[in-house]
Design brief:
By secondary structure, this protein is an alpha/beta fold. The chain has 7 helices and 22 strands. It has 2 domains: 197 residues, 3-Layer(bba) Sandwich (FAD/NAD(P)-binding domain); 120 residues, FAD/NAD(P)-binding domain. Helix content is 21%, strand content 30%. Strands 1, 2, 5, 6, 7, 8 and 21 form a 7-stranded mixed β-sheet that branches. A 5-stranded parallel β-sheet has the order 10-17-11-12-13. It starts with a strand and ends in a 21-residue tail after the last helix.
């Protein structure tokens, strides 16, 4: 007979991992399914070395270390984790138990919490004729090792948090850092923009890239155009980082009968979707007043787990939780 889980979590990014940890604290039988071969989601796979500034108690922490800390929490319990499995279908049987079909197996669960982040993601590329000639050499969409930019002249393109954060991260490493944005104002957090203007990063706004020039796979210069005046400028550099965001796809999730809005799942204030016993947390969840940061997703995880257990047993009332005594005696610090 197949094992029936209390809660199955789809997605093992930061919010999915924390959801699993809290569900274990509530003594639920938990299953985690992740389509990638490693946990950690976008912070691990796309921003492993990028500093993150919105995690409580950490002034800054990079994606790799955040993932490891969250995994350490989950590892306090015996976890049931399937990696490299994409969920293809989600549907209840006649008893109301959800059958979760993946590309490798089928699982049974009383409730489901979707923590799939932004779904499948691909970087939005620089639309210049010869850009693909320099990709993965001197044109980068993902930065894995900041030390590779040591003593280099680097230009970062974009106006969001990622672009501003990478410019600031590389400032003490690279020889020169330029930040190019096609608009005058940035979309990044106000505090990050203030740090940017106080830094040595050379800000070029509003400019757009017209041409890339170089030999073999090495960029040597950019031709820029001032958006308003149309004046042209040439910028000599060694490396180009493009942070234009990512195009996301919900994949099979859009076929599960969930109420969607702009590639997100609509949920109630208790993280409930329109499907009974199915909840959504993190970036994939949408509700009025949504704040799309990891810390907000952690709070959503607590609500979803408690509501999932209440769905299983309407008489369930969560006992007062004193986290300082959960593992009393196991740690000395």
């Amino acid at each position: 007979m197949k094992k029936i889980y209390d809660i199955t979590i789809i997605g093992a990014g930061p919010v999915g991992l924390y959801t699993a940890f809290f569900a274990h604290i509530r003594n639920a039988k938990v299953k985690i399914i992740e389509s990638l071969e490693e946990v950690g989601g976008q912070p691990k796979h796309l921003y492993g070395e990028k500093m993150i500034f919105d995690i409580p108690a950490y002034p800054s922490i990079n994606g790799n270390n955040l993932t490891q800390k969250l995994l350490d929490q989950v590892n306090l319990f015996e976890k049931d984790l399937s990696l490299g499995e994409e969920v293809l279908d989600l549907s209840p049987n006649e008893d109301g138990i959800y059958i979760i079909k993946t590309n490798k197996d089928s699982y049974y669960s009383k409730t489901v919490i979707i923590a799939a982040g932004n779904g499948a993601f691909q970087p939005r590329k620089l639309e210049i004729d010869n850009a693909n000639h320099f990709e993965n050499h001197s044109l980068h969409y993902i930065v894995k090792k900041p030390e590779n930019f040591k003593h280099q002249r680097v230009a970062v393109c974009g106006g969001g948090d990622s672009a501003v954060d990478w410019a600031l991260t590389l400032e003490p490493i690279a020889e020169e850092v330029y930040l190019i944005h096609r608009r005058e104002n940035f979309r990044a957090l106000e505090s990050s923009v203030s740090k940017l203007h106080a830094s040595t990063v050379k800000v070029l706004t509003p400019y757009k890239i017209l041409e890339l020039a170089g030999k073999e796979h090495q960029i040597e210069s950019l031709k820029l155009q001032q958006v308003k005046s149309k004046e042209l400028e040439e910028l000599e550099l060694d490396q180009l980082i493009v942070n234009y965001g990512f195009s996301n796809s919900l994949g099979h999730i859009k076929d599960w009968g969930l109420k969607l809005s702009r590639n997100q799942i609509e949920v109630s204030s208790l993280m409930e979707t329109n499907l009974p016993g199915v909840f959504a947390v993190g970036d994939i969840a949408d509700y009025p007043g949504k704040v799309k940061i990891i810390a907000a997703g952690f709070g959503e995880a607590l609500l979803a787990v408690n509501q999932a257990l209440h769905f299983i047993d309407p008489n369930y009332r969560p006992s007062p939780l004193h986290s300082s005594t959960i593992f009393e005696g196991e740690f000395n610090d």
